[in-house]
């Protein structure tokens, strides 16, 4: 393994991969250029993984790994860990990577831990490192810091954490890795690993005699490692401006009609969803990139295909691999197409083609896997996780849409309490969307739920048990064994136990206020918004939960029956209370103004 920038020819290094050193009798080391290239290759592979994850520090990646680590992986990696460190320190290592934080000096990872993180990432199948490359990272803990910088600082600098520079793309890292050359055919990985471990102990015994000069590490007068120089592309950060797709004038349907249609469309093929959006809502021509087929298709404003051309691209759905999502075309140079990502507005080289794209054209890159998909929400086309909306930095997921529409809410029920309740959901929409950080479609869906949940909980406040509880809250507290403390009582027509703190602060609300329909409506919607975020976090545990049926499963968390989501036993179509909620929702009409 040798860089074209190194001084010796590849054949010379491979012909004599193990060399003697002058200052210590009878000692031999791995050729310094082999050691340096192994280290540099491991460094670049780690940096490439950070790019793939769209993370700026190895500490952030270590924390992410700790969250992904399964019980089985935790147990199986311990044997690999003990090749480097003592078994009794393993639990401490797991805690250290969980808390790792580059921006807190006490939680920054030293070179030894970076090597262990790399070994863990390889064990989990996330980085294609060989054993010798990990050994090269491991030995670096005995070297003086290169140019005064630790390994973690070098990674942070290359990844743009320390100044305003862009991540290199996965493809750019691949080019740099190829420039480091190929393995020597006459030396095995086992021999490389064994020799590097011997060199580790040699440098540890003579640590005081090591010094760094530029990219070389010396032991007295002998070079221990000659790290090849990197020739990296320009990392200037290029940012564009937000450019939402212009919308056509569309039919102002009531929310229930719109959401049922939206759910039906969102279950279809990605290309079909995109074409439907432009047929009914989007008012602009567009292109669709299919990386698997190495194809770009051009479409008219109405979704009719105009032409198609071949492209050159790299695999992967991640943002820094030219991955799936919504983009705007910015420029074309030497065949490379540069696109502005919807998520972070950064401009990156995405693919190559001989076809010409028109300025400001919208470009949709289809996902290569079933883990992501295009959806219509808030009357706009979005891209996100296939199951439920998630915030993943690694992908060009659509950011939150803060647009809102005022609504008119009516309820087909002859009950003054219910009408005042619905009026509050209508009047407080703008305020609550801002307080709770939710989108327009989400608010309307939660408004339906907040209204419907009154049916199974208290029959819209008419249930005799509810009225008795409200008349004698202290007696209820005594019966529950809470003494005179009524804080644990469920209150109001929706029987909630907790008012979100933002609501308490904004509206100066107390639990005793929940018998008032306006207060009950506000608190119930906010409480339900908290549950919705929680439901998205646990949705992966239930195979049937998707974005389109979240409202059906919300009541399980509302009742505190989280285990039914966790154990995948929740069956809303068989739940009598959820059936009542659905029937009550049909009494409500939400219409955009």
Can you tell me about this structure?
By secondary structure, the chain is α+β, with helices and mostly antiparallel strands. It is about 40% helix and about 15% strand. The protein contains 23 helices and 16 strands. The strands form five sheets. The chain has a seven-stranded mixed sheet, with no helix packed on it. Strands 3-4-5 form a three-stranded antiparallel sheet. It has a two-stranded antiparallel sheet with strand order 1-2. A hairpin with a 2-residue loop joins strand 3 and strand 4. Helix 4 (about 70-80) packs across helix 6, helix 7 packs parallel to helix 10 and helix 15 crosses helix 23. The chain is globular, with a radius of gyration of 30 Å. It starts with 9 loop residues before the first helix and ends with a strand. Mean pLDDT is about 90; it is low at about 1-10.
Task: Summarize it.
The chain is of the alpha+beta class and 593 residues long.
Descriptive labels:
single chain; 593 residues; alpha+beta; three-stranded antiparallel sheet; 41% helix; globular
Fraction of residues in helices?
40-55%
Continuous helix count: 23
- Cα(first) to Cα(last) distance is 67 Å
Decide which structural class fits the backbone: alpha+beta
**Unreliable segments of 5+ consecutive residues:** 1-9
> Biggest sheet: strands side by side, in what order?
8-7-6-12-9-10-11
The overall pLDDT, averaged over residues, is 90
Gross morphology is globular
**Beta-strand content estimate:** 5-15%
Q: Biggest sheet: strands, sense, closure? A: 7 strands, mixed
- DSSP summary, beta strand count: 16
Q: How many whole angstroms does the radius of gyration measure?
A: 30 Å
């Amino acid at each position: 393994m040798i860089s074209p920038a190194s001084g010796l020819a590849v054949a010379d290094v491979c012909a004599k991969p193990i060399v003697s050193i002058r200052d210590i009798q009878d000692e031999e080391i791995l050729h310094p250029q082999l050691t340096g290239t192994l280290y540099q290759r491991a460094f670049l592979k780690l940096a490439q993984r950070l790019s793939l994850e769209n993370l700026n520090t190895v500490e952030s990646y270590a924390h992410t790994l700790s969250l992904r680590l399964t019980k089985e992986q935790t147990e199986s990696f311990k044997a690999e860990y003990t090749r480097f460190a003592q078994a009794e320190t393993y639990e401490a290592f797991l805690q250290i990577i969980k808390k790792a934080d580059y921006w807190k000096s006490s939680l920054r990872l030293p070179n030894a831990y970076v090597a262990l993180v790399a070994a863990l990432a390889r064990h989990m199948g996330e980085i294609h490192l060989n054993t010798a490359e990990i050994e090269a990272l491991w030995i670096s803990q005995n070297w003086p810091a290169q140019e005064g910088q630790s390994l973690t600082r070098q990674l942070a600098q290359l990844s743009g954490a320390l100044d305003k520079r862009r991540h290199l793309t996965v493809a750019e890292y691949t080019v740099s890795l190829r420039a480091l050359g190929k393995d020597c055919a006459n030396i095995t990985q086992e021999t490389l690993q064994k020799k590097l471990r011997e060199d580790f102990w040699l440098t540890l015994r003579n640590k005081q005699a090591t010094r760094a000069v530029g990219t070389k590490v010396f032991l007295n007068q002998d070079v221990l490692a000659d790290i090849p120089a990197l020739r990296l592309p320009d990392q200037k950060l290029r940012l564009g401006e937000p450019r939402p797709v212009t919308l056509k004038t569309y039919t102002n349907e009531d929310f229930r009609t719109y959401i049922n249609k939206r759910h039906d469309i969102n279950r279809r093929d990605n290309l079909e969803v995109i074409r439907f959006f432009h047929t009914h809502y989007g008012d602009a021509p567009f292109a669709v990139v299919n990386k698997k087929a190495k194809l770009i298709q051009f479409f008219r404003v109405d979704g009719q295909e105009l032409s198609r051309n071949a492209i050159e691209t790299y695999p992967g759905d991640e943002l820094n691999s030219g991955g799936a999502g919504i983009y705007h075309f910015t420029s074309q140079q030497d065949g490379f197409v540069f696109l502005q990502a919807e998520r972070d507005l950064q401009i990156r080289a995405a693919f190559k083609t001989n076809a010409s794209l028109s300025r400001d054209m919208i470009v949709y890159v289809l996902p290569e896997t079933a883990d992501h998909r295009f959806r219509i929400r808030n009357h706009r086309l979005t891209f996100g996780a296939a199951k439920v909306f998630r915030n993943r930095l690694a992908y060009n997921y659509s950011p939150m849409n803060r647009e809102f529409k005022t609504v008119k809410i009516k309820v087909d029920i002859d009950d003054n309490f219910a009408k005042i309740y619905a009026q509050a959901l209508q009047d407080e929409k703008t305020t609550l969307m801002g307080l709770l950080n939710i989108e327009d479609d989400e608010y309307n869906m939660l408004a339906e739920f907040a209204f419907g949940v009154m049916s199974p909980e208290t029959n819209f406040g008419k249930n005799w048990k509810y009225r008795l509880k409200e008349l004698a809250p202290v007696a209820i507290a005594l019966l529950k064994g809470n003494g005179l403390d009524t804080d644990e009582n469920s209150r109001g027509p929706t029987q909630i136990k907790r008012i979100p703190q933002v609501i308490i602060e904004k509206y100066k609300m107390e639990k005793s206020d929940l018998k008032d329909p306006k207060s009950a409506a506000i608190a119930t919607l906010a409480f339900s918004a908290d549950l919705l975020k929680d439901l998205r976090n646990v949705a992966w545990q239930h195979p049937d939960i998707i974005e389109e049926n979240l409202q059906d499963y919300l009541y399980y968390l509302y009742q505190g029956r989280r285990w039914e989501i966790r154990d995948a036993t929740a069956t809303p179509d068989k739940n009598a209370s959820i059936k009542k909620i659905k029937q009550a929702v049909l009494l409500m009409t939400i219409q955009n103004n």
